[in-house]
Fold:
Amino acid sequence: MLSVQWQTMYLKDEAATFAYAQQFASELKAGDCLALTGDLGAGKSVFARAIMRALGVEDEIMPSPTFSLIQSYQGAIHPVAHMDWYRLEGSEEILLAGAQEYLYAPWISLIEWPQRAWELLPAHSQRIHLEYADLLTDRKLTKSHL
Structure:
């Protein structure tokens, strides 16, 4: 049986989120997939943008992919895909949207609402769960492997 390693931390504000993203992004490589979970407004999109900035994405505007479903960017080394599966009903709709090609190298993929189709994620995916902490600006981040 696999052992699950959890890492939990508290991020006081957006600056702390960006600082952690900078450190975390330095460990990412082609083919990595991040499953971003948490309630609406918990900070998934903020964390995704922080990771993309840390990966060298220079686009001035990085909108949430809520309606486009997939936004692709060029990072300093690897292309990055930011996906939002919130409006999709399951794996069939996600596959029809063309998401599967972004789940493997050379891409680094960041997926909001991955619970719509856990079965599509590569086995080596990492889960980042964000939730509100004590104050409205504080977030609790828990990192684990799927």
Summary: The chain has a mean pLDDT of 86. The helical segments are 14-25, 44-54, 91-96. The chain is about 20% helix and 25% strand. The domain at 7-145 is CATH 3.40.50.300 (Rossmann fold).
